[in-house]
Amino acid sequence: MIDQITHLLGYEFAQNAVIAGLLVAVVAGLVSRFVVARNMSFAVHALAELGFTGAAGFVLIGLSPVLGLLTGSLLTAVFIATLGQRIRERDAIVGVVMAFGLGLGVLFITLYTRYASEAFAILFGAITAVSRGDLLLLGAMAVIVIVGLGILYRPLTFASVDPVVAEARGVPVRLISIVFLLLLAAAVAEAVQVVGVLLILTLLITPGATAERLTAHPGRATLASVGVALLATLGGIGLALATTIPVSFFVTTIAFACYLGARFGPLSRGAR
Amino acid sequence: MIVGQAPGAVPEPLTALNRDGSAIRFDRATLGYGPRIVWSDLSLVVQPGEFLAVLGPNGSGKTSMLRALLGLTALGAGGLEVLGSVPRRGNPAIGYVPQHAGFDRDVPMRGRDLVGLGVNGHRWGFGGLTPVERSRVAEALRAVGAERYADQPIGRLSGGEQQRLRIAQALVGNPRLLLCDEPLASLDLRYQQEIAELIGSWSRSSSGTVVFVTHDVNPVLAYAQRVVFVVNGRWAAGTTDEVLTSETMTRLYGAPVEVVRVRGRIIVVGDATGSGLDLDEPYEFPDPGADAR
């Protein structure tokens, strides 16, 4: 099996997959910490599904599906940020926007009858189909998200744990939540490359949720989250290269195993 | 005593008070959201080291008053000075203690980290505290008696322990003014007394000014030199004995209200005070101003 993997790593498609996996895992691990802290699972889901609509639309007019994904999820982020002024409104708005966008996606897919595989790739991930051009785009997006989170890190942590006090201390809570939503949209567009729209939560929720069960130290939790995302993504790509089973299956399985381990294993900080 | 918006009441002239040295100065201040006036024509001077309790029913604009002091809400009319300048967001000389709201049980954060956010949580970027800052955090934890659980996850601590940490977080920057928004709400009676005592003794030992919003004056009776009672856009300020009388309360509510003193406790009752307006009624909902967050 190891031989098979090393042999395949000589090919460009496999190298691209590993590099893309690295980029995606680091971004997803970092973002996941805050997605979990801010209870934004539903928003992640909506950003991904409307990313799908964007990708389907772009494919229909002959443009890059990766760009379409990014456009779709960014537009959704802007929409949610503009309309969802209050937390309790946000859930409903996400649902309203998601339902409509997915309807559009169905239309685009129906109109684009040539390759059903395009749709399948967006829904379930197709990291082995990442080109050098895609890699540049993914790299640029990763840099933006990582640098953005680096700048926001402390006030975002403050605003996620105790928004009322953070605001009183002068943290621009509203601005930060909008910027985070945009960074999240970019991270979603990245992670879709590996696991697809339908399995996005495995990279944007599970690592952060796993990290919370491992340590109460905020910095270590962030590192643990990135570690889980790396393990699941690279492990998943490796196992997929050695077999004929899709990457997504292995990524979701490894991530889930990590969560179970963190929840019930010897490293768990316990559920009192 | 000063009473606002009551017929025939003349506010004390501000010139009689020490303008330059005051910690807070409301000057005929009015605050409202859209067409709704929360309170109006508030003139009040708080001296450094003073402990002022802000009382009133839910929705009377107590939280809005703190938001105005924090520079988060602009006044509709009138003037406001905080520590000698106009209110501005993120003033490091102001500490803020919120109402107790439990943290998520699994949030990866220890007491020490929460207090640390009071030092650097508002700064852009990432990275930890310097050794000097770490020792300031340790000092703040010691001051509130939270060392024992400083390294435990905050989500697993009791309400009283979490409030102690929030006070440490507010005090770690050595503020001159401490704004407290219902810090006792939803705490057990014993914790209420402990937290009130902690804030009262900080005010005494460091000559820090405290503005303490509370629906129940009793836990802070021993510490509050003055109270301001706000209701229906009207207000009255003075000592507890001056303000919390049947006459003043009846005038503020515009309907018969009786103030009863039983075993050292003060209870305000009356038809007009309705369900949410009894001072002893458990606090349930934040002011409408809090919704704007």
Quick recap of the structure?
The complex is a heterodimer of chains A (272) and B (293). Chain A has 272 residues and is mostly helical.
How would you describe this protein?
The complex is a heterodimer of chains A (272) and B (293). Chain A has 272 residues and is an all-alpha fold. Chain A has a single domain, classed as Orthogonal Bundle (ABC transporter involved in vitamin B12 uptake, BtuC), CATH 1.10.3470.10. Chain A has helices spanning 2-8, 12-37, 41-60, 65-83, 87-111, 116-124, 132-161, 163-168, 173-195, 201-204, 206-214, 218-242, 247-264. In chain A, α3 packs antiparallel against α6 (116-124), α6 crosses α9 (173-195) and α12 (218-242) runs antiparallel to α13 (247-264). The model of chain A has no long low-confidence stretch (mean pLDDT 89). With 293 residues, chain B is α/β, with parallel strands linked by helices. Chain B has two domains: 2-93 and 176-292, Rossmann fold; 101-174, no CATH class. In chain B, the strands form three sheets. Chain B has a seven-stranded mixed sheet, sandwiched between helices. A three-stranded antiparallel sheet of chain B has the order 3-2-5, covered by helices on one side. In chain B, a hairpin with a 2-residue loop joins β2 and β3. In chain B, α2 packs across α3 (131-143) and α2 runs parallel beside α4. The longest helix of chain B is centred in the last third of the chain and has 18 residues, at 189-206. Chain B starts with a strand and ends in a 24-residue tail after the last strand.
